[in-house]
Amino acid sequence: MTPISRIRNFSIVAHIDHGKSTLADRLIQLTGAMDAREMAGKEQVLDNMDIERERGITIKAQTVRLQYKANDGETYTLNLIDTPGHVDFAYEVSRSLSACEGSLLVVDASQGVEAQTLANVYQAIDNDHDIVVVLNKVDLPAAEPERIRDQIEEVIGIDASQAVLISAKTGLGIPDVLEAIVTQLPPPREGDPEKPLKAMLVDSWYDAYLGVIVLVRVIDGVLKKGQTIRMMGTNARYPVERTGVFTPKMLNVDAIGPGEFGFITASIKEVADTRVGDTITEDRRPTLSPLPGFKPAQPVVFCGLFPVDAADFEDLRAAVGKLRLNDASFSFEMETSAALGFGFRCGFLGLLHLEIIQERLEREFDLDLIATAPSVVYRLNLIDGSQKELHNPADMPDVVRISSIEEPWIRATILTPDDYLGGILKLCQDRRGIQADLSYVGTRAMLVYDLPLNEVVFDFYDRLKSISKGYASFDYALTDYREGDLVKMSLLVNEEPVDALSMLVHRTAAEKRGRAMCEKLKELIPQHMFKIPIQAAIGGKVIARETISALRKDVTAKCYGGDVTRKRKLLEKQKEGKKRMRQFGKVDIPQAAFIEALKMGD
Amino acid sequence: MTLNLDPGFGIYLHWPFCAAKCPYCDFNSHVRHKPVDQERFVRAFTRELEHLRERTGPREAVSIFLGGGTPSLMKPETVGALLDTVARLWTVRSDAEITLEANPSSVDADRFRGYRLAGVNRVSLGVQALNDPDLRFLGRLHGVDEAKRAIALARETFPRMSFDLIYARPNQTPEAWGRELEEAIGLAADHLSLYQLTIEEGTAFYGLHQRGKFAVPDGETGAELYRVTQEVTAANGLPAYEISNHARPGAESRHNLVYWRYGEYVGAGPGAHGRFKEKGRRIVTMTERLPEAWAALVEEKGHGIVDGERLDSEEEADEFLLMGLRLAEGIDLDRYEKLAGRPLSNRQIGNLLSEGLIAPVGNSRIRATPSGMIVLDALVADLAR
């Protein structure tokens, strides 16, 4: 155990691509937690999942204990808490931040402050963090550390005079970062090894070999192997089997003392048995002052996931169950669709979360899935005075029973080079946005907009990226529910409604959206042997229509004894193709159409 | 109409040589600039047929078909030797159809008499067009007058005769095609094979077409040409009994019906395919395509079979479906169920019936309607799922 005065707990906040993971790699390397051989060929050693590494994002929180001999001759224990950077996981960021006392704010010395930087740094400030400003990529020709330093002071309002200039890529300035952590960040504020055990459950996940691993931060007392602990939120008791730290390899230690981070295993069966933010105490001698705890994260985006092949339903059930073991913020319940058969209605923290889960299901569990239109959670105020939450447009009650519909709104912050401002303003206006603020951060515009979430869930981020050629950054937070003039739009293919394509839209946007969807479906659905009308309708009224013309001719002229094998193989391919489609009435719709049809592409 | 639907057992012999390669042809055909050693090939055919006989056991053949390539490049003695071998190995029914494919050139026609004496009772002539510019475009070595003389001679020589035409040629109008077709029927064939020109990969036309050197009629015109074909032939007493084959009732090609009714057949010669039952399952045989390599293989191993498979029930059912629905008589649903181990989907049948793409025939058969025939590949894929 390290004396509290020689512990520093910190996290790194940064915009995606500003070098957070590279800096973490450097810190690990320089403190010798992993030698060069172990680091060789590995980048972003903290990102365990393939998806994390491929997408350059961090999904689960990670900690690493670093031993650092400072200029004052003392050896310090530095605990780096790596947090997710994406807006979808803002909630995880906030609880990770609350477990430490300081942050490194990493800003790209040429690009400067981005929307995500702002959102994350404000969270750190809200958690009373001291902040060390780190300007990365100063070795690049475009770097302007002086300008960015001013920008940070101006926009964020924190002192950047002591900013550390580094290049995580070349290793320049990394020792200065370590020294700044020791000198500029405070040790843990409290902590008494004699007091009853009080530890925060920071995160937990399932490991195939060790079972549930719980990441903890000890506040008071000492956590030891053999102790019987109690989760104060659930009152469940467990004997501690193993205590350890991440270096980032798992290293068993005898005890975890006040101010320290570590992990325990304790025969806990499921991640669902652990509540993030819960207080862990000793069963014999419980603490009298448990931590306030966290509210569980609420899913904000829902969509249906169905197996392409109905026979895979049980596999899908097993797979979502397994993912849920590791991701309590992902929710699911069984859903039956007239069109798609059996599947699950799943809830996600945001669109990235949705994509990640879908990708993991397809990749790790080898499932072919159809995802239906993402939907936000609407609140329906019914004539009888009751209120109902609507997760699925297909469940919408008869309009005569509804007195009003409320939808979730967000406050979005967008930072963009001036050149793209016009296009972005138009995008926000088109999506029913209400401008709250427009100011300048150096040469860049900072736009603050209130937007209905349902206008953002489909492809807002993609559009923003394409309008700004990738330069605009975007962050948002849910604010409130507001009443909206929303109607349910149905899509009819060959005169039959396809429930998986129905959606709630604002009345003023319905016609445009309906037309776009009909046009998209016309491209996505292959020609059939008969013509297929595609219609968008509100109630019984058709607001848009397209027709897919019939195949005129598709027949092999010659087919004799020597042609049968080749023809059968073609037929087998066609049959395989049909398996990747869903049949609605007489029409085969490719699975990709369900998501593709929603992309507006303005 | 009562149908004798027993497809029977047929024997196919592939003669792979041609005087010239036609630019549209993707069949297994080869041009040789030295005379072909026909005796060597006869010996190889004999050995391969003996091998196949061992595997099929004694069977009664309803048909023998000499296809190619250009079988009319064979000497009559060669044809005679091959037919004698077949007759020695299997029982050939007294009314068996014995067809030879022939080019309508004068050189080939000179041998007609000899073929008849060897036992051939039906010829199929590769006429392809009834005007000289189109014959030249199609790379044919004969002219129209020559073809007409060959047709007349074939009619005199053989009890039965058929010829092929290719339509949907560049710039061909439905009107012109209708007139050409009437003229063809007037040449008093009792059987016509009428193929839409398709551009196949690996042919000379493929590259030319890719490079935009010529264009074939679009889908709309193709459909119209197909419609005209059906109308003109039906009005003149030669209705389609298969997608591309038309006959006076009773004059259908029995050999090809073996294929379409999913009967059994052996195939001998380079690149020939066979399908027959062995130990309770239908097997496929395919031989080496290159003529000399095939002959060497037969000399070494007793047969030239290089590929094949044992079909599972789904594969058999798929083949039965895709072949059978080509016929105007359609398919027997019970036979499908027996082959597949499951019936065709009622839902798919219902959908296609309601769109008028298929029609019931009696209680247990379905057939593709004319509007179904023209999109048959899509229709079969829909049913077979």
Can you offer a commentary on this structure?
Chain A: It comes from Mesorhizobium liriopis. Chain A: InterPro entries: EF-4, EFG_III/V, EFG_V-like, EFTu-like_2, G_TR_CS, LepA_C_sf, LepA_CTD, LepA_IV. Chain A: Belongs to the TRAFAC class translation factor GTPase superfamily. Classic translation factor GTPase family. LepA subfamily. Chain A: It holds the Pfam family LepA_C. Chain A: It catalyses: GTP + H2O = GDP + phosphate + H(+). The complex is a heterodimer of chains A (about 600) and B (about 375). In chain A, about 25% of the residues lie in helices and about 35% in strands. An 8-stranded antiparallel beta sheet of chain A has the order 11-10-16-7-8-15-12-13, with no helix packed on it. A 6-stranded mixed beta sheet of chain A has the order 2-3-1-4-5-6, sandwiched between helices. In chain A, strands 22, 23, 24, 25, 26 and 27 form a 6-stranded antiparallel beta sheet that branches. Chain A is of the alpha+beta class. The radius of gyration of chain A is 27 Å and the shape is globular. In chain A, helix 1 (about 20-30) crosses helix 7. In chain B, strand 9 (about 240) and strand 10 form a beta hairpin. In chain B, the strands form 4 sheets. In chain B, strands 9-10-8-7-6-5-4-1-11 form a 9-stranded mixed beta sheet, with helices on both faces. In chain B, strands 12-13-14 form a 3-stranded antiparallel beta sheet. A 3-stranded antiparallel beta sheet of chain B has the order 15-17-16. Chain B has helices spanning about 40-55, 75-90, 105-110, 110-120, 130-135, 145-155, 175-185, 205-210, 220-235, 255-260, 290-300, 315-325, 335-340, 345-355, 370-375, 375-385; strands at about 10-15, 15-20, 30, 60-70, 90-100, 120-130, 160-165, 190-195, 240, 245, 265-270, 275-280, 280-285, 305-310, 330, 360, 365-370. Chain B is built from 16 helices and 17 strands. Chain B has about 375 residues and is of the alpha/beta class. In chain B, about 40% of the residues lie in helices and about 25% in strands. The interface of A and B includes residues 567, 571, 575 and 586 of A.
